[in-house]
Design goal:
With 368 residues, the protein is α+β, with helices and mostly antiparallel strands. 24% of the residues lie in helices and 40% in strands. The chain has a 16-stranded mixed beta sheet that branches.
């Protein structure tokens, strides 16, 4: 009897001690042969009593080694069984990602750039989670666009990213057109504000959704590193605002985008302040002056529509909107209830007109 208990205690201690190593190595093997990037985690901790696991130091790096920072890094993921959904008869997972950093990098070659990641990566991560994911939360994310080869280097940052996606798998079986919700907030260029609300039905072949977002108080000077590189000027002053509403139904979407540029003032780069840069900044300020209203605001409202594989922004309509704001009637910041797109009303959604029905029927099949 005593020897049996001793054996059981030794076995339990061995499993408990080796489980983190086994979990870490299992995850790293799954990432070993994926394309373009390499992934690894440093440690795994299991919590049997709460049916959860913590994954620490998750890296995704470019395989070429020519990009000095990871494509993705997070110090901790917490994956757990969503106990509240057990009462709905569903085994679902909740995933919380802490302090993730995503780095989009522009370089002179593919080896020195990183801009996106294959769906193979996403599917592999999903397969490593033992339950279907129903809730995803991101805390204090940090997203960067970088160009290390610019002089000075470009670094555009969106900080304090918070994302809460709920009922993704519709485990609550809500009989409503758009059962899942996604809420996003962030700080563009560290001082602006961004908010997005998305209601969506992932169970449709082409996700049905309604979306609105607003971005305000984004300082134009925060983009000076990029403006020096790509437009050869700096911003002396200015703010950016952006408002949009969009709905999608059977792969066809409709909506509008409404940008505002407040009190823009261009100036030459420091090294060009006694050369041709002065003329170029003056040209930009002159052109800008033709399109701003009496409050020194450039604004427009442009309809956007199309299919998911063929986006279309009405460029002519956007230009006319600029002229309207400058010479006829100033546009007002905020959403435009007079131009809000129609909202899907049925769980099996229908296109909004015979035209969109034809467009939906010609959508390509998803690539397998």
């Amino acid at each position: 009897m005593e020897s049996g208990l001793l054996f059981l205690a030794i076995l339990t201690a061995t499993v408990w001690y080796s489980a983190p190593y086994w979990g870490r190595d299992y995850i790293n093997r799954a990432f070993a042969n994926l394309p373009e990037y390499t992934g690894r985690v440093e440690w795994v901790r299991f919590h049997p009593l709460t049916a959860s696991v913590d994954v620490y130091q998750f890296h995704i790096d470019k395989k070429t080694g020519d990009v000095p920072i990871p494509f993705f890094f997070s110090p901790r993921w917490h994956v757990s069984l969503q106990w509240s959904e057990i009462f709905h008869g569903a085994e679902r997972a909740s995933v919380v990602i802490f302090n993730p950093q995503v780095n989009i990098v522009a370089g002179p070659s593919d080896k020195e750039s990183q801009s996106s990641i294959s769906m193979i990566w996403i599917n592999t991560i999903k397969q490593l989670i033992p339950w279907r994911v129903n809730e995803v939360r991101i805390h204090q994310g940090d997203f960067h666009f970088r160009d290390f080869h610019a002089d000075p280097p470009v670094d555009l940052e969106i900080s304090s990213v918070e994302i809460a996606a709920e009922n993704i798998s519709n485990s609550q079986r809500l009989k409503v057109p758009l059962p899942a919700t996604v809420k996003v907030s962030a700080r563009p260029l560290n001082t602006g504000t961004f908010k997005m609300n998305l209601a969506i039905n992932f169970d449709e072949k082409y996700a049905t959704f309604t979306q609105d977002f607003q971005m305000e108080h984004v300082p134009a000077q925060g983009a000076n590193s990029a403006l020096k590189k790509y437009l050869k000027v700096e911003m002396k002053s200015g703010e950016i605002g952006l408002y949009s509403e969009l709905t999608g139904d059977k792969g066809v979407y409709h909506g509008y985008v409404k940008p505002f540029f407040y009190h823009f003032e261009f100036m030459p780069k420091p090294e060009d302040r006694h050369g041709p840069g002065v003329i170029w900044a003056g040209v930009l300020n002159t052109v800008k002056g033709l399109f701003q209203n009496h409050e020194k605001v450039i604004a427009t409202e442009a309809p956007i529509s199309g299919r998911i594989d063929q986006p279309d922004v009405d460029g002519w309509g956007a230009f006319l909107g600029v002229l309207w704001n400058a010479y006829i009637e100033a546009l007002k910041p905020g959403f435009d209830p007079d131009h809000s797109p129609p909202v899907p009303t049925d769980t099996v959604t229908t296109p909004q007109s015979p035209t969109t029905q034809q467009e939906a029927e010609t959508l390509p099949e998803k690539k397998k």
